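Database export, one record per block. Field names are fixed; values are copied verbatim from the stored entry.
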Amino acid sequence: MATAVNIKKLEADLWESADLLRSGSKLTSNQYCMPVLGLLFLRYAYSRFKKVEEELLKNRPTRGGRIMPIEASDFASKSALFLPKEAQYSYLVSLPANVSSQKLKSVSGHTMNSLGEVVNNAMELVEQQSEQLKGILPKTYTDFPDELLGELIRIFNNDALDKVGGDVIGRIYEYFLNKFAKNIASDDGVFFTPKPLVKMIVNVLEPRSGVLLDPACGSGGMFVQTGDFVNATGMQANSSMTFYGQEKVEYNAQLCMMNMAVHGLTGVVKSGDEANTFYHDAHNLNGCCDYVMANPPFNVDKVKSESAFSAGRLPFGLPGVNKDKEIGNGNYLWVSYFYSYLNERGRAGFVMAASATDSQGKDKDIREKLIATGHVDVMVSVGNNFFYTRSLPCSIWFFDKGKQKKLLDKILFIDARNYYTVVDRTLNEWTEWQLKNLNAIVWLYRGEKQKYKALLQEYKQTLGICGKQTFEKCKVEIEAKLKEKRDEARTAIVSADRKEKKTVQARFDEEIATLEETLTIAKEAVWLYEKFGEGEYRDILGLCKIEDRKTILEEKGASLTPGAYVGVTPVEDDGVNFEERMAEIHQELLDLQEESNRLMKTISKNMKEMGL
């Protein structure tokens, strides 16, 4: 069985191999991104194809003693692409180095003389199987030398992918999309919304069925995550949800369609000028959506006010307009659109610049009208470094037009700026368990105690807790096991033969990583239980606060900034006398300086003796 540690290693190994090839070629990340994702797409489609084929053959009817042949329609019913032989990944892998010797014919009938042509042909064949993929898949593989392309194909034919299962290939696809987003840091390249933010939005909105619109859909993360969420409930996303997207940048729209297809989803995505949401409701969905999810571009300026006004979807009026009849900041255009697209029970969740929660002027007027509706549901502050190409903090807004009557006068504020996991120096994220904990606060605000209790039970099952053992006691026991395992590892590695050291090290590294992962889960369980016990919501200083509309409008100037309500977590006294500790640090610095001077004198003396 594949562990999270193994899968992470597989992701990293595949990326390192593929990126090494990129750095050795003359291709830029922009040129390399789409073809590489295309190959991963083909590998994932093939994995799903083989899995579905196996399922179909199990109960296949027979006629005249022969099994009925499998057709493309059989695969469509299972949300998988039918792949003709020449588009199957195994076919590409098995081709000889000298492709021209095979005298292969393309779909258009011409002889193919390079591997690049064969892969282009495979993409053509796949597009013939899917209406939504027509003209979408990359066909620039003749830009790659056959040797480089062949090596890429072999990298993604890693046996480990088959062992960990097809769904993991989808995860690796997202991982690559992730990495490319970090590398392609240009205006048009900012197409990827970090998965933790997407998951937070989907988890709070809890989509089940209906129309979902993302009017700034980028690479389609909102659709993919919604599909996963709906499928996890036992329903089929493609039959219960209708997906619509708008994306001005056509390159991003292509990635969106590929991303949806690789996850077995269908939808309608419009791109180009007609998909500029400031001026077009491309799908005529105003007032029709059950869900709206988006991460729109922040702080867009020079939006033509007259064109935006005539395009409608502005229930609270225009933001500020300058002398050139331009809107200097488009944030509140987006806010208005997201609200306007919702039907009478619709929910919206979107990422927005942190500054928008208390901006002034016309923005404040719009915000006051919005708060007065009672449909602002939850506001979440997010800290720095969640985006791959930006370091600014942001906020996540949630609207609910079908809000419970008892909550119409309330808004839940969550300040999550100090709650995250550090990935590296420039990137933070929420782990799966941190996302569950943040979601639990929303459940308790809504009075959904059973969901909270189910999460406590999930923690207990994951940690193997039974009886009266507490989360805190479990955490302490895991810490002790981890210390013991590290001590055991040091002893074993030191005493191992030189040839065996790496093997022993690897074995202990995996065991320690598993324990560390379990300890992290235990710490999150303690974090949640210490605050809300068996399931009673309460305001937590520095984290969450439920506030009424009157206070927000009359006392707080219509601010929707969580920090204005939740306060600041008090700093715990660590019992250290500040003046004494500073004196100790000063003495330590003097001692270090003295030691440094002594070493310099010794070095100078030695160099003189050597005649240098």
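Remark 1: Residues 501-532 form the longest helix (32 residues).
Remark 2: The chain is about 50% helix and 15% strand.
End of record.
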